[in-house]
Design brief:
With about 90 residues, the chain is an alpha+beta fold. It has a domain of about 50 residues. About 40% of the residues lie in helices and about 15% in strands. It binds zinc ion (ZN).
Length: about 90
């Protein structure tokens, strides 16, 4: 392969995302709608509302929302064990 074409594609994917055209149809998984590139496995996020590709900024916002949801969910899934009221301390006895 032409080295310049390789470099071009490298930067193209950085600035414009995946440059391949063999994409799956959009599907929704775990409340995310995206296509997957059959060549490189890159995920192209779509808005389930407009069915258009999300911009980089929208993807960041989406991931930030998900991260905040994880933080909210975390205390529920990993509730610290309650201090038992009748727990005796060795130095109190
Ligand atoms: Zn690709």
């Amino acid at each position: 392969m032409n080295i310049f074409l390789t470099i071009f594609n490298f930067f193209y994917e950085i600035f414009f995302g995946c440059s391949h055209e063999r994409l799956t149809r959009p599907f929704t998984l775990q409340e995310q709608t995206y296509k997957v590139c059959l060549d490189c496995g890159n995920q192209v996020y779509y808005s389930p509302i407009t069915m258009r590709p999300l911009s980089a900024r929208e993807v960041r916002r989406m991931k930030a929302v998900q991260a905040s949801e994880v933080r909210v969910m975390a205390p529920v899934s990993s509730t610290p064990s309650m201090i038992q009221p009748n727990e005796r301390k060795s130095n109190a006895a």
